[in-house]
Design brief:
This protein is mainly alpha-helical and about 450 residues long. It has three domains: about 5-80 and about 165-190, no CATH class; about 80-165, no CATH class; about 205-455, no CATH class. About 45% of the residues lie in helices and about 10% in strands. The termini are far apart.
């Protein structure tokens, strides 16, 4: 039915000797390129820009039934973003006392069956951040339930937004209809790379990309994932309770420190309560790491760190230092944002390190309480997934600069405007591709700006 449907007219396929459709081709092959050209043309017809996610959008629009049968288990699944992701599902199950799996029900059915009173209404409004007026609320529970469903579909399902997921992922041009053969119900079983134990090692700390943190982000992410594997417990160094350990950055990346293997083990509760608080003990550990040859601070924050790290005498000083460092770091990101919006990505890309994505890491003798004994096994690896991770790293970094003004912390005092003539000179150098001179001026500007913030907040 799908192959013969007019929506797919002209899309290349072949039949085997037994008459069965050869559903899959290799995307990079000559046959795959025929399909690629067809999908490009459909995007043009549907007025979908050729960019990340365009083929998934086209595949969803073209699919005549919007339902895909999982080849592994035979379950019928919506191709739309109608299923809760794991975090949302966990929240729903906990609140309503349910034991749902991800693809048991669409979000429409879940809300429809679990929105029976005012407490339920408040749960859904809070969970999805829905904006309802007094008149919206002044209706029967049946009408209100439908209003919530309509808003969720309008703001999340139709826009393909988290915290929802599609029942099956896109796979253009390899699969004829543009969707994987296995559904969300079976993907962890059929894709070895997505087995639960393996996926836990692929933690990606988006904040590190957004903060433009130095360090081997791939190694750091994998080590963070190692903390999540298994169920072994240890005595937490802070509270003394026996718990699973999590990886705490000794130097918070929000203050300009590296995203590297400089972790301290803490239980989840202690890690959450610490947040970005900085202690004298943390600073002593970071100084000791530096003396051992480790890099702990990102290049753009090194000036302020070197100027003040030895002046910290107690936890109150450490707290004060954190306030100074976050001010400096946010002003640097503000400067990067200005450079990006006026000059594009080429100059700033030189300060990113996507090459770190092209390695795989395994660990021997992992003990979260004794990371100094960790044996790291490093292997160079190039794959589609690695290239996607490298691109994601760059994309998130620049997206953070694009959205910087919308997300800027109100507690930050931005002083970069005081240096506008120097900023304009820097931009002129970048536009003329005089990158060596631009580097020198950029570092000098960061130094002057950081020292002025230091004088205002510390001296």
């Amino acid at each position: 039915m799908i192959v013969n449907h007019p929506n797919y007219k002209g899309l290349f396929y072949e039949r085997a000797e037994d008459g069965r459709v050869k559903w899959v081709v290799t995307g990079k092959s000559e046959k795959g390129q025929l399909r690629q050209a067809w999908w490009d043309e459909q995007c043009r017809i549907l007025n979908i820009p050729i960019e990340k996610g365009c083929y998934a959008t086209a595949a969803r629009k073209l699919h005549p039934t919007k339902v895909k049968v999982c080849q592994c288990c035979g379950k019928s699944l919506s191709i739309l973003y109608e299923y809760p992701n794991k975090n949302l599902l966990k929240k729903i199950n906990a609140h309503f006392g349910l034991t749902l799996n991800q693809t048991d029900c669409t979000i429409k059915d879940i809300i429809g069956q679990n929105c029976m009173n005012n407490a339920d209404v408040l749960f859904w409004i809070d969970t999805f951040g829905l904006k309802l007026t007094k008149s919206d609320l002044d209706v029967t529970i049946t009408a209100l339930r439908q209003k919530i469903i309509d808003l969720v579909y309008k703001d999340f399902v139709d826009k393909c937004q988290s915290p929802l997921s599609p029942g099956v992922m896109s796979n253009c041009p390899d699969r004829f209809d543009g969707f994987h053969s296995d559904g969300l119900c079976c993907r962890e079983k059929t894709d070895k790379g997505r087995h639960a134990d393996n996926m836990k090692t692929y933690t990606q700390d988006r904040r590190a990309y957004e903060e433009w943190a130095d360090g081997d982000f791939n190694l750091a992410n994998r080590l963070m994932g190692e903390f999540k594997k298994g169920s072994k417990t240890y005595v937490c160094p802070k509270c003394g309770k026996r718990r699973k350990m999590t990886a705490d950055h000794i130097g918070p990346i929000s203050l300009g420190f590296c995203h590297s293997t400089n972790f301290a083990p803490l239980c989840q509760s202690c890690n959450s309560s610490k947040n970005n608080r900085f202690s004298k003990s943390d600073i002593d550990k970071l100084i000791a790491l530096e003396k051992s040859g480790k890099t702990v601070i990102s290049w753009h924050s090194k000036v302020i760190w070197d100027a003040l790290k030895t002046k910290v005498k107690n936890d109150e000083d450490a707290k004060k230092l954190s306030h100074v460092m976050v001010q400096c770091h946010q002003n640097v990101l503000k400067l990067f944002s200005k450079i990006y919006t006026t000059c594009g990505t080429e100059y700033l890309e030189r300060f990113l390190h996507p090459e770190f994505a092209f390695y795989d890491y395994r660990f021997d003798d992992f003990n979260p309480l004794h990371l100094e004994h960790l044996n790291i096994i490093k292997k160079e690896l190039d794959s589609t997934n690695k290239r996607k991770n490298a691109e994601r790293y760059k994309r998130v970094a620049f997206e953070s600069l694009e959205d910087f003004d919308d997300k800027a912390n109100r507690k930050i005092t931005f002083v970069i405007e005081q240096y506008e003539p120097t900023v304009q000179k820097l931009i002129a150098l970048i536009k003329s591709k005089s990158y060596t001179k631009a580097d020198s001026l950029l570092k000098d500007l960061i130094r002057v700006m950081s020292m002025n913030i230091k004088r205002a907040m510390w001296d």
